[in-house]
Amino acid sequence: MNKTFGYARVSSTEQSLNRQLDALINYGIPERDIITDKESGKTLERVGYQGLKSLLRSGDTVVITSLDRLSRNKTHMLKELDYFKNHNIRLIVLDLPTTTVNLQEEQKWILEMINNILIEVLSSMAEQERENIRKRQEEGIRAAKERGKNFGRPKLLYNKDLLGSIDFLLSRGVPKAKIASKLHISRSSLYRILKNTGRS
Fold first, then answer.
1. How many domains, in total, are found in the chain?
2. Is 71 inside any structural domain?
3. Where are the alpha helices (DSSP H) in 41-92?
């Protein structure tokens, strides 16, 4: 028997899936048949999505709320649409009402043409939005750096007390692993200090 699955995605663990879940449930999909991801749309290697594809069989249907839930990468999006088509899997996009219109068999080319145009436009918009987000992030990081904000792991300060403690413990033959533990620093940090201060 053919099945209908829902798929919902947000880009991070902080974001809520509730709006998409409500829309899919209201469409008539049981919550147990809705697969979710909290991962970026820039890749298709998402646990939930790949799990969904492993469940799909010819004649099944996948329902999503919007096309960018599938992917924000135009190439990936078109690749997946081809995959669904080639495997006889129907895709319903709730904000593309033409995907659910019933036409006579001889008129279905109209529906396909409209959908192809909409998909092309929306996939381009989704990819452009992802590029805009990336640019805004880069601009934000650049502006923060100009204000003196540092990113990444904070630099370890080689103060005299720390170096003195290291020298004392080394002189007593304390193993380096224990020195790092006693001074509450990682072993890699200790080795970096020893190397950078000529103590290695």
1. 2
2. yes
3. 47-55, 74-86
Q: Does the residue 140 lie in any domain?
A: no
How many CA within 13 A on the CB side of residue 16? 4
| Contact predicate 190/177, CB 8 Å | no
Torsions phi, psi of 63, nearest 5?
A: -115, 130
DSSP letter at 42? T
Q: Report angle CA 36, 39, 46 to the nearest 5 degrees.
A: 70
Residue 168 sits in which domain range?
160-196
**Length of the chain in residues, anyone?**
200
Q: Are 81 and 166 found together in one domain?
A: no
Q: pLDDT tens across 85-113, in order? A: 888 888 888 886 554 444 344 444 445 55
Q: Which amino acid is at 144?
A: A
Q: What is the pTM of this model?
A: 0.53
Q: What pLDDT is recorded for position 23? A: 94
Please tell me the distance from the alpha carbon of residue 65 to that of residue 21, in angstroms, as a whole number.
Answer: 9
Rounded to 5 degrees, what are φ and ψ at 29? -95, 125
Residues 166 and 119 placed together within one structural domain of the fold: no
Residues identified as active-site: 11
Same domain, 54 and 115: yes
- pLDDT single digits (tens) 122-161: 556 656 666 666 777 777 777 777 776 655 555 555 566 6
Average pLDDT across the chain, whole number: 78
Q: Name, in order, each residue with C-beta under 8 angstroms of 68's C-beta and a sequence gap of 6 or more.
A: 41, 122, 126, 129
Shared-domain flag, residues 71 and 114:
yes
